């Protein structure tokens, strides 16, 4: 969590304006920030419900949910449109922010400044500040002076830039032609569109240095005086289409990843997520005024892979429909009607598998019984072989006798016992035995035999 | 640094500067788990003079994915009584589920929603099946299949 202690408390935030005389700028700044990442808009895009988000943010959201994060209206990536006015507003504000904030946070200027509100006067005051008695320590006075100088330089730079662009447009020859907005070649008005589409060679005049691509710091925004059309002449990279993963076999998906030049390692799920992330960052990059290089995007993908690749949320169709039925306004009746046949199939399926399971279970039970019986038989035989067991005899006897009608067999019982136990007086304990035998007699023959 | 960290950094700096009444940051020592205290602002007798502790857990997917938010029970921090709050602190609120969640929500807006969810309640009861759920539940809140049926919340 080193990032936590290092950067977290130094984040620029709309609340920076609170407790300054320019607190009214807080809502201004808020309106220039994305509701998803809370940062200034990066490649702002308009949804079809007219909300604006960073390109990357809204693409991620739509991937996860297919709804506008603000109004929950359904939308899709293909309907997003760039919000260029917002892009320029953000660029301009971000460029001015530090200076305005410094200005707002600076202690109230000494009264002398009031007399001469112009910049030059401030500078002179500051220069004199060295020998004037000052409430602030010298160091801060100096840095304040340096700051003003820097600001001034900045301002003149702006002015010069502005003048330059204005100068370009002054010598407009009256030849009834117009200049191409990119290469400045002069042609008939009707030809411009076609020229732009086909033969425009790109900007000819020496361009202002391209800003470092990728905007890491807040100040990497290009100067707002340059129009978007004057950016690099490379044709904009083509957007990647979303693919329906369920239509692709593993090998086809692997091939697709390889074609895109990204890793095709990992499980199916990981590959799908990686492809989706790549499409997302690639397409978001296409919306950028200052697109990153492919190498930088690959780096971003790598970072994503390390931080959350394996844990990214599944946005499979199953997950989405599963979630749908949990919603408050879910219409159970309609759902049941719509999916009636699938429900019936499922029920039939469940019944079938249950039957199968039952059959299997009973077969298994029979087998088990069979084994048990064999074992028992074996044990009984062994026991019989080991010692003559009197109990075995009556069972056999009664089995045999059970064919006779019970009344006639009844008087035989004591006799039988008398014979088998070889005692003339039946022991008192034999009474229950008889009952038992009688009950076994009343059960149907086969099962009695089996026990 | 993941986008979750970036976004949480911004939220934290805002929270450190200002929070709406009745919401206080207790601790945010990392970008995974924060604690906040909330109390109800009106004098609803069910919640008067009580402060409740909330635990927020953020995944690397935040704010695309909702954070996990539960009430925590401490000696001086009870679990508020509410028909959608289980006595183990788990909250059944569609805003916190994958369905009702939207990335424009944030820690502050969740706290405010919970404040208003409490304020608007006048039932002194726990959800149906609370005891059984509290006894049997081993799932994390995000893995529980809630069915959001109450349109009055």
From TrEMBL, chain A:
Parts forming coiled coils: none
GO molecular function, one term: single-stranded DNA binding
Record keywords, A-Z: DNA damage, DNA repair, DNA-binding, Metal-binding, Nucleus, Transferase, Ubl conjugation pathway, Zinc, Zinc-finger
Residue intervals of the UBZ4-type domain: 177-205
EC number(s) reported in the record: 2.3.2.27
InterPro entries in the record: Rad18, Rad18_fungi, Rad18_UBZ4, SAP_dom, Znf_RING, Znf_RING/FYVE/PHD, Znf_RING_CS
Pfam families: SAP, zf-C3HC4_2
Annotated RING-type domain residues: 34-72
Skewed-composition ranges (Basic and acidic residues): 149-161
Enzyme class: transferase
Residue ranges with Acidic residues bias: 162-173
Any Gene Ontology CC annotation: nucleus
Cellular localization per UniProt: Nucleus
Biological process terms in GO annotation: DNA damage tolerance; DNA repair; protein monoubiquitination
Known catalytic reactions: S-ubiquitinyl-[E2 ubiquitin-conjugating enzyme]-L-cysteine + [acceptor protein]-L-lysine = [E2 ubiquitin-conjugating enzyme]-L-cysteine + N(6)-ubiquitinyl-[acceptor protein]-L-lysine
PANTHER family reported for this sequence: E3 UBIQUITIN-PROTEIN LIGASE RAD18 (PTHR14134:SF2)
NCBIfam families according to UniProt: rad18
Assembly mode: Interacts with E2 UBC2, forming a complex with ubiquitin ligase activity.
Family: Belongs to the RAD18 family.
Entry function: E3 RING-finger protein, member of the UBC2/RAD6 epistasis group. Associates to the E2 ubiquitin conjugating enzyme UBC2/RAD6 to form the UBC2-RAD18 ubiquitin ligase complex involved in postreplicative repair (PRR) of damaged DNA.
Protein name: Postreplication repair E3 ubiquitin-protein ligase RAD18
TrEMBL record, chain B:
Keyword check for Transcription regulation: no
SUPFAM superfamilies: UBC-like
Coiled coil residues, start to end: none
Domain UBC core: from-to ranges: 3-153
InterPro entries: Ub_conjugating_enzyme, UBC, UBQ-conjugating_enzyme/RWD
UniProtKB keywords: Ubl conjugation pathway
Pfam families with a match to the protein in the record: UQ_con (PF00179)
TM region(s), chain numbering: none
Keyword flag Chloroplast: no
PROSITE patterns for the chain: UBC_2
Designated name of the protein: Ubiquitin-conjugating enzyme
Originating species: Cladorrhinum samala
């Amino acid at each position: 969590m080193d990032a936590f202690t290092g950067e977290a408390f130094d984040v620029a935030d709309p609340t920076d304006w609170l407790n300054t005389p320019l607190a009214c700028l807080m809502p201004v700044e808020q309106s220039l920030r994305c509701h998803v990442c809370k940062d200034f808009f990066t490649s702002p895009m308009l949804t079809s419900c007219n909300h604006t988000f960073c390109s990357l943010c809204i693409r991620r959201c739509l991937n996860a949910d297919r709804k506008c994060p603000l109004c929950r209206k359904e939308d899709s990536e293909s309907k997003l449109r760039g919000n260029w006015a917002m892009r320029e507003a953000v660029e301009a504000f971000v460029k001015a922010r530090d200076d305005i904030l410094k200005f707002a946070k600076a202690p109230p200027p000494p009264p002398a400044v009031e007399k001469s509100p112009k910049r030059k006067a401030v500078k002179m005051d500051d220069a004199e500040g060295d020998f004037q008695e000052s409430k602030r320590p010298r160091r801060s006075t100096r840095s304040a002076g340096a700051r003003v100088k820097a600001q001034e330089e900045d301002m003149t730079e702006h002015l010069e830039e502005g003048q330059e662009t204005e100068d370009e447009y002054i010598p407009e020859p009256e030849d009834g032609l117009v200049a191409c907005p990119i290469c400045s070649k002069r042609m008939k008005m009707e030809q411009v569109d076609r020229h732009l589409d086909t033969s425009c060679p790109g900007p000819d005049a020496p361009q202002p240095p391209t800003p470092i691509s990728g905007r890491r710091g807040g100040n990497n925004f290009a100067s707002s005086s340059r129009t978007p059309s004057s950016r690099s002449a490379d044709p904009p990279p083509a957007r990647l289409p979303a693919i329906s993963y369920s239509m692709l076999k593993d090998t086809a998906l692997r091939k697709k990843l390889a074609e895109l030049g990204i890793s095709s390692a990992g499980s199916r799920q990981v590959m799908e997520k990686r492809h989706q992330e790549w499409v997302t960052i690639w397409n978001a990059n296409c919306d950028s005024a200052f697109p990153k290089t492919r190498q930088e995007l690959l780096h971003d993908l790598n970072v994503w892979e390390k931080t959350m690749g394996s844990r990214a949320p599944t946005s499979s169709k199953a997950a989405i429909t599963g979630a749908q039925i949990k919603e408050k306004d879910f219409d159970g009746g309609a759902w049941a009607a719509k999916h009636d046949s699938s429900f019936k199939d499922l029920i039939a399926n469940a019944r079938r598998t249950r039957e199968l399971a039952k059959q299997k279970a009973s077969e298994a039970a029979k087998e088990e019984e069979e084994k048990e019986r064999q074992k028992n038989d074996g044990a009984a035989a062994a026991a019989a072989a080991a010692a003559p067991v009197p109990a075995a005899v009556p069972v056999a006897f009664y089995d045999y006798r059970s064919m006779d009608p019970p009344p006639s067999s009844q008087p035989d019982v004591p006799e039988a016992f008398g014979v088998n136990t070889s005692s003339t007086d039946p022991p008192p304990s034999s009474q229950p035995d008889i009952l038992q035998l009688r009950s076994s007699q009343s059960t149907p023959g086969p099962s009695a035999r089996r026990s | 640094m993941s986008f979750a960290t970036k976004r949480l950094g911004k939220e934290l700096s805002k929270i450190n500067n200002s929070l709406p009444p009745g919401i206080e940051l207790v601790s945010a020592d990392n970008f995974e788990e924060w604690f906040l205290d909330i109390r109800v602002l009106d004098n609803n007798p069910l919640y008067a003079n009580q402060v409740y502790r909330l635990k927020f857990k953020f995944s690397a997917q935040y704010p695309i994915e909702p954070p996990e938010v539960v009430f925590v029970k401490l000696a001086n921090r009870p679990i508020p009584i509410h028909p959608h709050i289980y006595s183990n602190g788990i909250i059944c609120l569609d805003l916190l589920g994958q369905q009702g969640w939207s990335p424009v929500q944030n820690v502050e807006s969740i706290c405010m929603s919970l404040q208003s969810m409490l304020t608007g309640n006048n039932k002194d009861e726990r959800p149906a099946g609370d005891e059984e759920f509290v006894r049997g539940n081993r799932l994390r809140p995000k893995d529980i299949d809630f069915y959001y049926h109450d349109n009055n919340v």
